[in-house]
Each structure stands twice: as C-alpha cells, then as structure tokens.
Amino acid sequence: MRGSQVWYNGRIIAAENAKISLFTHGLHYGFGAFEGIRAYKLKRGGGAIFRLEDHLERLYDSARILDLKIPYSIDELIRATLAICKENKFEECYLRHIIFTADGPLGLNHGDNPPVDIAILAWEWGSYLGDKNVKEGARLKISSFCRPHVNSIMTKGKITGQYVVSCLAKREAISQGFDEALLLDHEGYLAEGSGENIFMVRDGIVKTTPLTSILGGITRRTVIAYLKQQGMELVETRFTRDELWCADEIFLTGTAAEITPVREIDYRVIGRGQYAGKPGPLTTQIQKDYRAITRGELKLPGGKAWLTPVK
Questions:
Q1: Is residue 156 among the annotated active site residues?
Q2: How many angstroms separate the CA atoms of 147 and 215, rounded?
C-alpha cells in the first residue's frame, strides 16, 4: 500500500497533489539521485528506520557528485522522514528519497545552481524478490548487459539515470523465466545484481566484489560488519561467473532485497549435498540475524545508532 502523504520541497502534502512540470530537467535527462530505506517494526513495539543517517549521507554524496545543492540539512531530512512515517501511520515500510533538477533550462547544460525538487515517499513493500525466493532461493541469469565502466558512469552515486541498464537487465532476466539478473563488469568479472550486491561462500571463505565499479551498499556494509564480528574470513575480490557457479552458497544483499539466497544461476544448481539448490547454513543464519539486527534484537559493535525510532 502506498502512503497517502508525501514530503515534497519542505511540506507534507497529499500524494495526488505532488505534481511536477513536463519541463522538469531531471525527467528528460535522468539528472537526480535517490535512496531506498526501510523502517521495521521493533520487537519491543513501535517502529524504527534502519541506518537512516548512513543512507542520507550517501544521498548527499550522490548530490555532490552531480554538483546539486540539497537545500536541507541531514537533520531536517531525518525529521521529515520520521514525519512521513507518522503521517502515513507506517511502522514498517519502504522509504524513497529523491532529488532531481526541476523545471528550468532543458539543454544538457542546466547552468550553475539549477533549481531542484526533493521528495520523500513511503509505501508498504514486502520481499523485493518474493517471499518464496527469500525462503527457497532465487534463480539468477548472467545478463547480456554489463555494468558500465567507471569512466562512463559515476559508480559511487545512486543516480537516477544510471539505472536504465539495471532496468533492461532485470526485464531481460524476467522475460527468460529468471528472478533477477547478474551483471559483469567490462572485463568479464562479476559486478552486482540489477539492484543488489552479491556474496559467495566457498570452503568457509566469504567473498564479495570490491568497491571498484559497484555502489557500496548499506546492507553490504552491515553484512561485512556482522561477518567480522563472527570471526568469518571475508575477502573483497574479483571473481568470474564460473567460480560463482561452483560456490557452496550465494546470497544477494540490498535494502529492498535484504538477504536473499540464490539457488540457481544460468540453470546451474548452487550448493552441494543436502544444500544443493537450497539456502546454505551461513546464508540462513545471516538472514535470521539480519532480521534481528533491523528490529533491535541484536546489536553489532558501532551499530548503536543504526535504528532511528519513529515516535
């Protein structure tokens, strides 16, 4: 269910009244940045937003990359985000923050200090890849589209126009009967999913792709902190599709996807023995503990400020 109220340029208004001009620069050129954040119901009651400040700091980084000025402080956006949760009476929801160049010059050069619009939306969103895939594992396809080179896009920004390739990859995978796409980089190494980071497990060692051509996920950071606390061996390194096919376990991470196991890639079953084609033991444990972390039942070192209560 979508929230009936949105925050738009400093005011809370009805969603149906939040309109933009057809002359909006960001609509024509994809010049904008966004964040996806989740709020969760807490075991002790009420709701809290997970890693809100970290997400907003990344939004500011994305805006800096685009040389856009956000006319609000992080504290102001925190208060606005909490207000939207309360106005929509959501304890658990998905939140979307978006900033984009507004109605102004429509050439590629929008000029210095262009006008910007900024909005916060909220809606109830369950498992991004589906409850069945969260429980049983998703089927993935190596995409024919590749993750763009670091000199062709700004890889450290969550920039709206850059997600066209992800949309095409996702549509291709779905049209061929898969649940999600995996993109390689321009040299043929694994990069990420259409909207998720990827981890693999082999012989007790966890590997994930390095922050070269990919966006640093907030959920990825959380999982890395968790694995370090557990004393697991974690390596950030490049790996190939055939190494991925031979993994003991594979899982995706992301704010929308949370922790989603992978049971098959390119028609090859992932895992061995009793875990062939099923979520592996480490993936299952991470799923369980990630759920506890986001609901305030388990804390990691340095994670005290990860939950912002909705009061």
A1: no
A2: 11
